[in-house]
Amino acid sequence: MINLKGHELTLEDMRAILYQKEEVKLEQSAIEAVQKSRKAVDRIVKEQSTVYGINTGFGKFSDVSIEEEDVHALQLHLIRSHACGLGQPFDEIVSRAMVVLRLNALLKGFSGIRLEVLERLAFMVNNDIHPVIPQQGSLGASGDLAPLSHLALVLIGEGFVWDGDQHVPSNVIWTKHKLTPIVLEAKEGLALINGTQAMTAQGVVNWLESETLAYQSEWIASMTIEALHGIIDAFHPAIHEARGYPEQVSVAKRVLHWLEGSKLVTKQGEKRVQDAYSLRCIPQIHGASWQVLAYVKEKLEIEMNAATDNPLIFEDGEVVISGGNFHGQPIAFSMDFLKIALAELANVSERRIERLVNPQLNEGLPPFLSPQPGLQSGAMIMQYAAASLVSENKTLSHPASVDSIPSSANQEDHVSMGTIGARHANQIIQNARRVLAIELICAMQGIEYRGKDLMAPSLSKKWHEIRAFIPSITKDRIFSVDIENLNKYLKSETARKIG
Q1: Which pLDDT belongs to residue 443?
Q2: Do 135 and 208 fall into the same domain?
């Protein structure tokens, strides 16, 4: 059980909630803060004070006053009109993350929402009720309005939820659980949709997958080192300590651990003086990607616990301030940075693939690792596929955050495009994992030619585990099946902490 407080939620908590279906519980101190905040909203409505989002219109309509009898209709119109999401839905796990993150933000007690709405969000998490939320349509300021509106639709008995691979109307689910939809009161529609939880939810899933992939890239690269009789001296601790980046030092240490006991690696001067950069500079290249992961982790964990709606209510309602915490710039930058880091892991992996299959570079392995060079193509086209994915990643790495298109009659004249950045980061991660899967297939085949009995014990264990479902290349076959099976295996490891 994870206690949600509105603060202190971590990425490891999110791993447990998302992948291990850990349930959530509302912390008592947060409940009290929520109730105080709601009393303030009720007082504002009763006193007919003019406060943005409670009894005014939204965006450019912020100067339009709303009569007390229309306050409820205002929230319903808001959700329906803003539910303009387009395209394919976010993965169900991202939808689950979105519900958790919006709930955690509202528990801070700055939003004026009723406790019963938050209890319903918690019920959704604990009963696997996940909204179907289209991926496209958010500018990332004022928050993720369109995606979060589709989340809010489910609360009011509209919209759709996931049921396996199917989408079913939300009112069917509420009837199944003997519950009625929520009727939104003053400010609650705005509180639900004015935030950065779409980009942050996708960002959380991105980071968890990226961390797993970064660790996997190290043992996969270590197999390639064995297959190419790589020079182990380049990983000596003194080299990396001399530069001083802790991430670089850690990568070198982990690679040495994976290669401990290997009879396939060489020392400098035995076969050649030094390796190509894609082998020799693994700690420097991969270590730099780890630096990015550390930066992104810091920003995500701040945003996961942030009040990102508008207006915010302070001092028991005596102070209600309109601001701009919904602006997604910090996450937009983080996702753009993450894109580069993961694209580079794939980039250098593809270069190692080329060395494994190229007869001029692979230290005597068969051309393209073919069992019958010429008659059978072996891994030739796997390298093509990896090159294609790497090239696609370079296009996707263009920063989304450098773009901005004004909206709401120029009231919202600078937006973050953070959700686009998060979505593109996810695409890069999926591409990078497949590139690493190709490297692993090629490295395992190379090691088979060298002598699998000479492997490092820790890598030998991995080799045998994967050979159970990825057979040796004894003849040409449809390799896309192997790549996808290995991709699924690698992705599945995100469910547990492996570092």
Answers
A1: 98
A2: no
